[in-house]
Amino acid sequence: MILNYLALAVPFFLFFIWLEYYIAKKQGKDYFKFNSSIANINVGIAERLIDLFAAGGFYFFYDYLHTHFAIFDIQPSILLWIALLLATDFLWYWYHRFGHEINLFWGFHVVHHTSEEFNYTAATRITIFQALVRTSFWSVLPVIGFPAEMITTILLVHGLYPFFTHTRLIGKLGILEYIIVTPSHHRVHHASNEQYLDKNYGDMFIIWDKLFGTFAEEKEEPTFGLTKQLGSYSFLWQHFHFLVEIAYAAKEQKGFWNKLKVIFGKPSEFDPEMRAKAEKRFLSVRKVKAHTTKFRKYVIVQIAFTVTALFLLLFFEHYIAFFLQTMIALFILVTLINCGAILEQRRWVFYLEFIRASLITITTFYYFPNPTLIGMSIVLLIVSLAYFSNLQKLYLRLIYGKRKILKSV
Ligand SMILES: [Zn+2]
Ligand SMILES: [Zn+2]
């Protein structure tokens, strides 16, 4: 039986999230907020999910470059493994630094920094777009001559380590503070305090920051998140808001070069007015003001279901047909959008239920092309459209409880 043991990362990370939550609660520390933690985990689920389809591509890309362009013929040895680890971390430093210093790259990396909290759930805030940018930096490695197998093995370590630097429970680590990136260093990186901005880009080793003058020691208590918090838990908005802002800013500029200057300019010089413009266009829809936290139950059930489905999908990936993999992945993505929108108490979540029902129906037809089933589904669709507004009211009452409809900004 060929199982994908990398899927075990899902329960592994969940265990440590639970452990951190448990210890923080025991110590009376308020390090977790419901909305923020769920939004963080949502981003992580999407990344693992899309990685299922992209991981093979990354491997192929490294292997292609190695076969066609390798300068040296590198055979694995202890010294070369160490050299590769250092080279990977060095390239990461520059990928990460550009991620903070160039608008377009910040548009992808900002997702990791949207969390207002700093805990293990924030560590899961990684997107596939970040992975793409990172891969382009790491593509130097196969050209030097490191084989794809070596690179992908090192990237596993590199993917695992930074998870553990996202915690407030661990203080300073003595002598280790001089060599590796510790939770204290990474707290500085995630802070919006003036003296901590654009500091500590390292992933595993802190030496690069010390070498290139971007190191800051944690002295005063960090305030986490962006200098101007996003204030939205929407899955889609958290992923794409800065790219939309860049598009608005570029549109306002005249001439090709000026547009390019905006796209590749510095985030610290970016016009803050763009946020309001983008929000006005994309977030000004009616929303429900809930007086209870009833909707949390629905979100928790959905996340529990999603995480289980993700684990099973990854673990048994070699036994699940591509069609079914795609349908499950789409279902999970719609569920993540749904959960984010519910945290925002949006009314349009109701439409997402139609999309999820359609995905189930299509999958059922694919495997059981029975005319009676098709007929029944069409009747069901017509009836639900006829009673659309009643059903919508009922649905919103069910998930949000007693509510008042407000115009949101
Ligand atoms: Zn960063
Ligand atoms: Zn981080």
TrEMBL record:
One example GO MF annotation: oxidoreductase activity
Chief localisation class: membrane
Positions of the Fatty acid hydroxylase domain: 81-214
Catalytic class of the enzyme: oxidoreductase
Alphabetical keyword list: Lipid metabolism, Membrane, Oxidoreductase, Transmembrane, Transmembrane helix
InterPro entries reported for this sequence: Fatty_acid_hydroxylase, Sterol_desaturase/TMEM195
Record's subcellular location: Endomembrane system
Keyword Flavoprotein among record annotations: no
Residues passing through the membrane, by range: 6-24, 45-62, 74-95, 298-316, 322-343, 350-368, 374-396
Pfam families given in the database record: FA_hydroxylase
Membrane disposition: Multi-pass membrane protein
Protein name from the UniProt record: Sterol desaturase family protein
Source organism: Emticicia soli
Higher taxonomy: Bacteria, Pseudomonadati, Bacteroidota, Cytophagia, Cytophagales
